[in-house]
Design a protein that fits this description.
With about 500 residues, the chain is an alpha/beta fold. The protein folds into two domains: about 270 residues, 3-Layer(aba) Sandwich (Rossmann fold), CATH 3.40.50.300; about 200 residues, 2-Layer Sandwich (Nucleotidyltransferase, domain 5). Helix content is about 35%, strand content about 20%. The protein is built from 16 helices and 19 strands. The chain has a ten-stranded mixed sheet with strand order 5-6-7-4-8-9-3-12-10-11. Helix 2 packs across helix 4, helix 13 packs across helix 15 and helix 15 runs antiparallel to helix 16.
Length: about 500
Amino acid sequence: MTTATPTATEHIVLRPQPGKQETFLASSADIAIYGGSAGGGKTWSLLLEPLYHYKTPGFGAVVFRRTFPEIIKKGGMWDESEKLYRALGGIPREGRLEWGFTLNAHQETTINFAHCQHEKDVLSWKGAQIPLIAIDQVESFTEFQFWYLLSRNRSVCGVRPYVRATCNPVPEDDPTGGWLHRLIQWWIDPETGLAIEDRAGVLRWFVRDGEQLIWDDSQESLQARYPQLPAKSLTFIPSRLEDNPILMQVDPGYLGTLLSLPMVERERLHGGNWNVKPSAGFIFNRSWFDIVEAAPVNLITARYWDKAGTDGGGCYTAGVKMGKDMKTGLVYVLDVVRGQWSAGAREQLIRQMAILDGTDTKVYTEQEPGSGGKESAQNSVINLAGFSAYADPVRGNKLKRAYPFSSYAEARNVKLLRGHWNQDYLSELHSFSPDDDGFKDQVDASSGCFNKLALHARSFVMQCAGAVSESGRSSVEAMVQRTGYYWPGDR
């Protein structure tokens, strides 16, 4: 999106960037969906859309996100709207998440922001008349929510009611947004999962016959077949970061950020792939890990335990030890212990391993949700009296917790110290996927250890930086001599 800074005699100019943004904002479709890769200028396009009609009496627009924090977070939609709407005379009413544009003493137009966190939240819009419905990240809405909101899309102000939405790719079997994939599948190559560029912005028409959508390339042809069912038009315009040259100029590092994502998220958010999904070999691949005969000395080390309490059956307990080399940034998986033990035998083993690892190795125990999980983790911490031991309350699902480790491993930054555990470890990582019902204990312990090790390493860097500010360079040099680590300023 481009803007021009006005002088005393100039007007503010707001216009889309040439290309996909322009195609989206010029579309005549009843429903236009803009999306694919991250960074394509989707949200700005959505915010600009209501300004076509903000001086029309009786016009109103509602911009939806799935959750309230997504609207108000720093850099979110409300912050971005400030850059557009205030300059055009909009009056913000933050308590109502609303912008008002005064037309005269008795009339104004409004642009509201709203969320539908729970599926039933859309029912609060019963009876509403919304000339423009704008939905950001529509793949996070359920199919019921989308079609119910569409029923609120009506107008008596002279502006033809219409819907605009943005999205990122989701696979067809996604439990929340898979319906969107199926809705726009005509615009997507079924083999590659990529958008078909020749179909970008092309209108198609549909009617609903019972539970089925009937499509046609021509409104006239479709209405001839179903004269009693009014047809709606829909189009899809794919976006990529390269369609937003302003962002690439302002933030040239963002491309590197997208390319550093784990494989699945990189294919979606940079490549715009609608088919890719977590599966065996995509999250972790055994070819990413080199096995080494020795690891450097003076590593920052941690061991993380994913616990189970079944003796001889059921889930496994796994304890993964990693070390980070502050000179190179490489991470070494130093040891993996895995087995099916009773609770008592497990706690005894955890303490034995802490003794072998030494007091310089921090020990973390995954704390499962609920009172039972908290009690079990705290018992392990008590059992490890004399060591740096912590309970780690887990947040998010296993896949999200694994992504940082996955990304680091794909960059060939993770090495395995040769050991009898190597092959079992690599086999579990390689086969890991959300749909796999197999064991994931070594994956969970590895993800937890890597994430904690990263925090531990950052803490060390901050200590070094603090030493410089307080005691000068000599203190850092003494620390380097004692530990063998480099201070980042030396690199």
